[in-house]
Design a protein that fits this description.
CATH superfamily: Phosphoenolpyruvate-binding domains
Number of domains: 1
Radius of gyration: 17 Å
Structural class: alpha/beta
Shape: globular
């Protein structure tokens, strides 16, 4: 049985072979994320071709989410927002990547470092100018985005709780409650909500997750998340297929309890 929750797997150097992607799909990866902060268009074109080939071979529909990098910088603290307040968060690289993604037929565009609803409107205009109809996922990873959540939800097709970058903006002990609030508001607005970052982080190196990670994924779904996302676990980890399979197992159990009288 396949879970109703979307299992989003990031494709990277650990998972860019057709047979690995096939196995992830067999284990119910039902959306793939392409992180445009890394790699070139030729690399992404090959991945998109593989996914589309497998869709036909396996008679499945698996959407592709293009994740634009935005004004991202990397230093000793990791990668984080590197733009100027008041300026567009859509860079020249994003425009080039977006045109490529539209041409290649991606299904969703995830927008990094969203500040307000105007960012969504600008991206929507660019998509339409390039003849695309892609849906927009606003990544909530800045304080301003969280403060403008209501208006962002009005314009975006969905939101992604980017807990890693939110952890740079808020005290870590606040993140679970911020996540809860974003999910709650997205459900009220009837918009898709995805929870991401370090969900099964230990599976980068181990074939099974920790108990804490299992609880983290389960309660995100019980809370109402429509999707849960693997990042480094499936992009660079040693166990991309196992991570997808375990996330699906957790989702099935969480959905069972979400629909029971034990919770809610």
């Amino acid at each position: 049985m396949e879970s109703l929750t979307k299992i989003i797997a990031t494709v990277g150097p650990a998972s860019n072979k057709k047979e690995i992607i096939r196995k992830m799909m067999e284990n119910h990866a039902n959306m793939f994320r392409l992180n445009f902060s890394w790699n070139d268009h030729d690399w992404f074109r090959d991945i998109i071709k593989i996914i589309r080939e497998l869709e036909k071979e396996m008679d499945l529909r698996v959407p592709i989410m293009q994740d634009l990098s935005g004004p991202r910088v990397q230093d000793e603290k990791g990668h984080h927002f590197g733009g100027d307040l008041g300026q567009s968060v859509i860079t020249k690289k994003d425009r080039d990547d977006l045109a490529f993604g539209i041409k290649e037929g991606v299904d969703y565009v995830a927008m990094s470092f969203v500040c307000c609803c105007n960012d969504i409107l600008e991206l929507r205009r660019l998509i339409e100018e390039d003849g695309g109809q892609q849906k927009i996922i606003a990544k909530i990873e800045r304080r301003q985005a969280y403060e403008n959540l209501e208006s962002i939800l009005e314009q975006a097709d969905g939101v992604l709780v980017a807990r890693g970058d939110l952890g740079n903006e808020f005290p870590l002990e606040e993140i679970p409650f911020i996540q809860h609030h974003i999910i709650e508001e997205a459900k009220k607005a009837g918009k898709m909500v995805i929870v991401a970052t370090e969900m099964l982080s230990s599976m980068e190196h181990n074939p099974i997750p920790t108990r804490a990670e299992v609880s983290d994924v389960a309660y995100a779904i019980v809370d109402g998340a429509d999707g849960v996302m693997l990042s480094e676990e499936s992009a660079r980890g040693k166990y991309p297929v196992e991570a997808v399979a375990f996330m699906d197992k957790i989702a099935l159990m969480a959905e069972k309890y979400r629909g029971s009288t034990l919770i809610g």
